[in-house]
Amino acid sequence: MKAEMDKIVSLSLGENTAELQKYLSSLTNNQLISVITNSALKGKKVGTTIKGIFKGSPPNSTEGSNRRLLIYEHCIPLCESGELQTEVAADIIGLLMLETHTLSGSSLAQLASLFVDAIKVGKMGSGKSLELFPTVLTALAACEALAYGKGELSGEEYKKQLINSLCSSRDVPLSSDELQFLVEKVLRMFTKLDLQEIPPLVYQLLLLSAKGCKKQVLDGIINYFKEQDIQQEEESLDLEVQSIPQDQLRHVEGTAILHIVFAVRLDHELGREFLKSFKTSYVDLCPFSVALLLSVARIQRYEEQVFDLLKGAIIKSFKDEQLQQGSKFLQDLLTGHCSVAQMILDTVKNSVFGWDHVTQGLVQLGFFLLDTFGPKPGPFGKSTEGSATVARTPTQQACKLGGQVLLQSFKMHEPIRGEILEQVLNRLVTKTASPVNHYLDLFSDIVVSAPMILLESSSKVTETFDHMSYLPLATVQGLLKAVQPLLKISMSLKDALILVLRKAMFSSQLDGRKSAVTGFLLLLKNFKVLGSLASSQCSQAVSSSQIQVDVHSRYNSAANEAFCLEILSSLRRCLGQQADVRLMLYEGFYDVLRRNSQLASSIMQTLFSQLRRYYEPEQDLLPPVKLEPCITAHGDQIYLQEPLAHLVSCTVHCLMWLQNMRQSAQRNADNSDEEDEEEEEGYQSDLQAILESMTRRMIKSELEDFELDKSAEFSLGSSVGVKNNIYAVLVMGVYEVLMEYNFVKANYSKSCFEELIELFSRYHKLSEILKEKSGKGRVPSHKTPRSLLSMGFTSTLVTVLFRDTTQSREEALSVLRSNGEFVRYAVSVVVQKIQQLEETGHTDGPDGQSTDRTFRFLCDMTSVLMWRYTNIPSVVEEAGKKEKRSSLSQLCLEGLLRIFTTCQQRYPDKMAQLLSAMESAEGDAEQDNGTEINYFYIRQFQRALFTQLTGAEEDFNSKEAQLLVSILSVLSRQLKPSSQQFVQMITWTVKICKETSFEDAAFSKGLLSLLFNLHVLYKSPVSLLLELCQDIHSQLGDIDQVHKNNCNQLLVLSQVDRVLDEVDWLIARKKSQTASDKLGSGEATQTAGQQDAVEKAVTVQLGTLLTALNELVQTALLPGTCTITLLRQLSRTYTILTTLVKYYIQVCTSQHGALPTRFEKLVKLSGTHLTPQCYSFITYAQSGEFSGGDDKKKKRRNEVNTAGSAKLLRETKAIPNLIFSIEQYEKYLITLTKKSKVNLMQYMKLSTSRDFRINAATLDAALQEQDASQETTESQDTEETQEPKQKKRKQ
Prior knowledge:
two-stranded antiparallel sheet; 54 helices; 1% strand; disordered C terminus; FA complementation group I
């Protein structure tokens, strides 16, 4: 064989082609084949050999042509066999490519068939020779005619036939139909291929998309990965082996995303197509497409579009979810909800598999959501939402999602941590005008989740500290609370903070100095001095449990003590500053003492020396406190300088806590440090003496001693009045603190309680004067100053007043119980504390910041208030009825309502715990589960309401009934709509609504809204609406009869709005579905079944609603708000009917379906029942406007002239809007009639509302009157022409 090969090579190198031809002719086909095979396998001179054979085989001769074909037919399988070296195979294919165009048509056809057959049976092993196939097809398409088989085909036709039997690549020129066919075929192949082969195929498809079918290619790729993700999820739930490893799938997805982004960069048409597909509906999104969108966002021209698109999708998804959750009708109709938020969080999770191109987009998206949906500043820059509340509205949920995305990304991706941290801190520093709670929460979460990582970026945190004295106080507090765990493990950070705080101490800004106090107090709480009592380790605001560092090994206790004492000496300077700064200090000392009891002597000395400045040591002098130094004057203005009551309060609480600790410590250990004991004994006994002397002398002091008697001036307009107001508040505060101190100290002794009542009577007298005086001024509303009693004390006080049955305490407690004003005061302070907790999330005084303790107090208060309300009938309190204020029972109810609301907002998971605490206090702990307990209380409140309603109407207490309804609606939120109790609750509410006939607007409104809120979670409220509308119609009578009160109709109308919202949402949803079905027409058949259900529901809802409105339109509603609202609702109903008609026009155009008979009935109902009644109602409304209620109007014409004219303008606008809506509806019905070939207009009557209207009956009556009074025909004529004028008012 070698000889033949050498001969061919040598001859080909020579000039004599004829000799070469002759030699080749002498070789048989088999010999030729073995020459090529041998040289190819050895890899020697194969290129030259093949070139030689081509040279000696002229394409124009039959022999030469056949020999060329033979080489092709042999070389292709040889290259695919895998026995050749890759370079050799590549060389051979290269040579064959160059010579393809010389082959004859029939040879090309044979060769193409060879390829097709080999591909079909799967012989294309390495796929190397496939590079030759496009070249063969291109050459084939250029052939004029092919004598192939028995017939003749053009090259183009033959190529089509081949493509039909196989899919080709981008190098072949294709028509649009061929391209579409090809794309569909390749996409169908995806599922059959191995996962690793997908990215190259995606790449090829994207190159192909340059010729068209862009949407098809993108949708196909995205749907493939969407299905893979779903499959992966289902498999991960099964514990069997997964068919595709997760990491492999994610890596393939990552590569595919890179390919697509690359293609979008080069082809902007592709980018536009990609974004367009998500603009209409977010339902098509999936984690893969979210990741793809975020990657595309890195291309600058798409950035804004992508984030706007995602923002819209997220907010719409949350809104839709809210709508579905709030309506049983929608839940039954549509199963499941596609949550965009979950997709985004899945994308974050998936991005851990090396999706670096997605992470940047995730960070941007997170901050974009936080910035866009974060809390907005309220009036005067105050934050409107507390950070403790649960995210309820769609915007709050979107903001929370932004935080979650950033937190998860921070945990997973190291490279972006620095950037996230920097951006969060920058926003904390720069956004001083708007609330930054959401950034603080995120920063706090980051610190807790990765404290050690944060230490690497501690320079950024230190930099933020430098700006601290310029930041709002709330931001500083949040920031310090968040970095607290870091201070324990980083010396440098702690030192930096102390430096900044010291500077801030001397800041010219008041907020700066307050920040310094906050910071120092926080440090004191958290750097324990060794030997502090065990109880000081109370719950910390931010847990630092995952920082495994023993504080005392890093800082020894001596250093800690020196450090704390140094801070205390800094804080003492604050005692000479403004009242606000001092106030912060007094409020913080108690917590410091509880956590760091070794600092007791320093703190107590500080408070003691401060208190002595304002205490009158001379025992015979009254009053015992000096009020003069507590105020300061600046020009004409007078300011509070020393919050004396808070100072006394702080001292008392610290003293009582230390005494408790010492008692428990003495019980535990007898021997202790004598010296310290003596020192403590010293200032404790001094303080006790001062407090006792103050109590004694404050009881003796008359109001004249403080210059605060009835003749004193309290108007805030004069400086004397301001001074007296400040004095009064201080004195009342001191009385309150002394009451608390004496109660605790009394240990239930009767004489001490009598002193306490003395103190209270002084307090009460002063508060009454203050109320009375401030009521006279120009500003009538007087806010009671916040009570200084602690939450724990108020809780104990109401418990002993109402529930304590211990025999030995009976006599002493009767002193307190017999004083009705004192009992009332105790309950009102409880209500005030709960209100503060509801609004801010914490209360003043000790333990106010500790959520666990606060919740414990709430539980105690609830059981007491509940007992007081249910066990003492309100008949006992009838004596107080004559007064204008609310009864004790009512106060208890208000307290309960506030507690339940607060618990739902602040402690959503603890509601059952709260109720069971009440239960155990009640003593019938028969129910274990939460729903049962809840329903037990619901029944108690139902009983109370029933008692109210069954009494006589004059005994009915509207305020109490409203409170009961509010409590029922709060408690009913805890019931599951599927539970039996929920159904019982609805049945009861319906019964009450039907049986109650009290004319009390506010109560009826509350009861009806409770009914609707329950009903909407049980089933659609349209049937209920219909009943109510019929009821209103029967109550108020027809258009030409008398009227009654109109509050309930307004409520019913607002419910109409709710139903319309749902219907509108459903139609919009169907429209977008139809649009997407039109694009991918394959799906239309599948959704036909489901489509029917939604359309049927929409038609039924609208049908019932039309019947209900038909009742209202015939009702004599009062002119005014009610009529306008009805007119507006009617025009909205017609607008939505128009939308439905447009939807059917769309359906008829795209799918040529027949109109459902239900829809025809709906059109008939609207045309025969509602529209004519609407027109008569318009006439009625206009007559009410211009002539109705004449007698009343004459009386009040002057007062309400301007208001009336504005109102008329508003009313007359509602009427044309309604007429326009009706006419639009009829216009589109005409279009639908043409499209569907069904005559829908047969039910419509021509409108007369634009014509002159002459009411014949009125005219006759008027004419007869004229006849009776005047016989003259002339005057009759003039009257005749004038009368219609009054009636033919146009809109």
